[in-house]
Amino acid sequence: MSKDDLKTLICRTAALLRKEGYAAAKGCLSIREGSMIYITPESVNLSELKPKDLAEVDLESGKAVNGKNPAAGLPRHIAVYRNRADINALIHSTSPSVVCSSKAGEVIRPLLDDMAQSVGTTLKTAPSGTDSKSLNRLVKALKGRNSVLLHEDGALCGSGTMDDAHAICQVSEKACQAWIESAILGGGHTINALESALMRFVYLKKYSRQAEKNK
């Protein structure tokens, strides 16, 4: 995809996330292409976002080189991109069950197959700050996973493409909703750690083969 195509994709996804209730009005999402990050700006409503509004940030220096001032979540995105070669798109999700779970600060374990497969064997909570210590804990909590809860501030969801990151937002919300409802009803039967790990392994292997096929 060209730079213009990627920026258009971000804007289209941003509007869809707002419509579906997965992102706040001034939420944050980005795409990494090579050494550049295209990220939403700090002061524009996602429903009204235009390609020209997006900030262009150099991944190595962490400095904006074009566009408007980047969103406050930029340090999180930089930290993840620098540590995860498999993630090229990130979305800050603030859907209802995700936010509720992020306030609880618990480790969410999979009650549903799709969480174990696409999100990971657990959904951990990391600090929501952007200081170096918080960012290190964020990267650690995201290791081997595609989503991490940000304490009292939703979740950071990522994948290889923006469409897949969007899907991770959907699965994360579904997983948190199931966790909350099971707690209200007295508890549910989580998928055990070994079975979750196997599901995750098979999914990733199948996904990587499909990605190779689509090149």
Taking the sheet with the most strands, its summary is: 8 strands, mixed
Helix share, percent: 40-55%
Total strands: the figure is 8
Strand content: 5-15%
Order of helices and strands: HEEEEHEHHEHEEHH
Tally of helical runs = 7
Report the radius of gyration as a whole number of Å: 17 Å
Mean pLDDT: 93
Read across the widest sheet, the strand sequence of neighbours is: 4-3-2-1-5-8-7-6
> Which word captures the global form?
globular
What low-confidence regions span 5 or more consecutive residues with pLDDT below 50? Answer: none
Instruction: Decide which structural class fits the backbone.
Output: alpha+beta
Q: For the terminal residues, how far apart are their CA atoms?
A: 13 Å
In a nutshell, what does this entry contain?
Helices cover 47% and strands 15% of the residues. It is α+β, with helices and mostly antiparallel strands.
Explain this structure.
The chain has 215 residues and is an alpha+beta fold. Helices cover 47% and strands 15% of the residues. The chain is built from seven helices and eight strands, in the order H-E-E-E-E-H-E-H-H-E-H-E-E-H-H. The protein has helices at 3-20, 74-83, 96-104, 113-119, 132-142, 162-184, 193-214, and strands at 29-33, 36-39, 55-58, 64-66, 89-93, 125-126, 147-150, 155-159. The chain has an eight-stranded mixed sheet, with helices on both faces. The longest helix has 23 residues, at 162-184. The chain starts with a helix and ends with a helix.
